[in-house]
Amino acid sequence: MIVNLIVIALILLIGFHYSRKRNKDSDFNRKRYIKTICFILILQSGLRNVAVGTDTYNYFLSFEETKNMSWDRVWQVVIDYYKYNLGKDPGFTVLEKVVSSVFGEYQLFLFIIAILFFTALGRFIYSNTNQLRGTMVAFVIYSVLFYSFFSITGHRQTIATAGTLFAFEFLKKRKLFYFLLIILIASTIHKTSLVFIPLYFITYLKKPNYYFWIVIALFPILLLISNSIALYIFSLTNSYEEYQHMEELRPITFVCLMLLVSIMALVRYKRIIKLNPESTFYYFALMIGILFLSLVFAIHGYMRIVQYFSIFIMLIIPLILRSFGSSSKKIERLAYFYTIAILLFFFLKSNMDMRYKFFWQEMRLEEVYL
Length: 370
Hints:
This protein has helices spanning 2-19, 27-46, 56-67, 71-84, 90-102, 106-128, 132-151, 156-172, 176-187, 197-202, 208-224, 226-237, 252-267, 269-275, 279-293, 303-310, 313-323, 329-350. By secondary structure, it is mainly alpha-helical. It is globular. 39% of the residues are buried.
């Protein structure tokens, strides 16, 4: 927890430093800030011990196993998946083999994943924010809500999410070919990224607030029938069989936060659209996230789907805060202050047991491995 708290402090302190510059909201200034913070986040993720995070050690074992595979065996894994539907996500096996053949060290693999993801995340934030304060809040939201998965646990979905973030820019530009190409490549790493494809077509609809309000209104009903829906999808795909050990988890706080942010965004819809017309894309993304959020109490593995869309709160929350500026700059400043304070409170409350050590330090493995 201490390391991540230091990172959050650096996000704020470095942000305050850049905010003192004359053209604090210029593209050049924001780009320098984003590059600096992404570099810190890459170090945090890439230097971690294999015992940090729930799945890191599993991926370490997978990397070592793939390193000892012949290329013939690797290609057979790909053939078995596409011809006989055996195994899963063959693109990740190919990536493991390429990296292990060139570099050989798992620690460098962690760095490659971190560089790929934070390059995508940095570009995502830079392209969709235009104020330094909003960028700072976006990074704090990441460190509080998404760090525990993307930075220290996930490999396959972290790479796949990087793909969806890159693809999102082609969605905005309506370049379907490049959008689909990136998503299809990402799906070989984690097939759940295919769920991002409908967003391209849904965003052709007008007035997302109308559809979003309907989803919010139907959410209690969706919760009531979520068991039937989730189990039906599960019976068709078995996509989340590997996450059944997590079924006792109930992300009540996260669900409440997503609903609260969504409702606030809808209440401030007209002002937000005026500030950023492209935010219609964010509304549709969050709407899809809320739909899948109704299933997480039935099967926690659906959080993996939600994460492709919940990451858009990094963009919508700064816009909600900025929308208060039209009434009073003082109210806007207070909104930023209290938002960061609340995020830090949630971080301290939920991350007391979060462990982190660097790869050169000794660290005990999770109980599940012992």
